Amino acid sequence: MRHSKAYNFLSEYGQIALGVVLASIGLKAFLLPNGFLDGGVTGIALLVRTFVDIKISYLLILFSIPFLILGFYTVSKRIVIKSIVSIIALALFIHFENFETITDDKLLISIFGGLFLGAGIGIAIRNGSVLDGSEILGVYVNDRFGISIGQVILFFNIILFSITAWVISTEVALYSILTYIVTAKVTDLTIEGFEDFIGVTIVSKKYELIEDAILKELGVGMTLYKGTRGIGNSGKREDFDIIHSIINRIDMKKMHRIIDHIDDQAFIIEFDVNNVKGGVLRHYLNKKKNKKLPKT
Hints:
Elements: H1 5-34, H2 40-49, H3 56-71, H4 77-96, H5 106-126, H6 134-145, H7 149-167, H8 170-192, E1 197-203, H9 207-218, E2 223-232, E3 235-248, H10 252-262, E4 267-273, H11 279-285
Antiparallel strand pairs: 1-3, 1-4, 2-3
Helix pairs in contact: 1-4, 1-5, 2-3, 2-7, 3-4, 3-6, 5-8, 6-7, 7-8, 9-10
């Protein structure tokens, strides 16, 4: 279903607004009152705030400016504009909201502060915006020097948390690392979703039986490649189907049981799938028992 530009615009900015609210709750209700840090620009702002009497909302904008300028040379201007709007909105929300401290338990503060902050950052990223400029730094360094984005952000945060341990305390640094881990994991889950898909390639001399069994018992679609010639433990073979499918990770054991029951010598390759769009998703959302799916 196609939506109008107005609908897409309102949907994107509405979700970004939700992300801003969640991130601000994580900061104002959990991390700020207890002096805990997160990684990235947010962490720098929180660290500096412990030494200077400047509101965190001002520091967030101030420390984000260099990364946003960098963003004009690394990502699209649309992303930079969305990020400017998001960061200003987050700063305003933190400046004017007044949440009461929910708990004094340090472990709960780290976990739930990271959970709210990670959910907010993840929702913003899913809609083409960033609430933290360190991701833009990662993209820039990756483009110039070939270092992975994850390694850049990790190195950035190692320096940040080392400074925290030195100038504040080791305990605060350790709790801040826990907050960062929770934030990063929740951000990934929000961006990628909770369903984890696996790509499977199957080569078997009993491919026809496996095809029918997968369709009947798992109900997932598949793509069949024509193998013209192959050499394996059963010698040379010609003219056979290579089965390729995408399934949910929770169905992997069932998939193996189906294949082993038919051909315990089948050659199986599994690989992680970062993103899936189309029929397999519709299948898992609208699963019908023994539904006959067409081969492609």
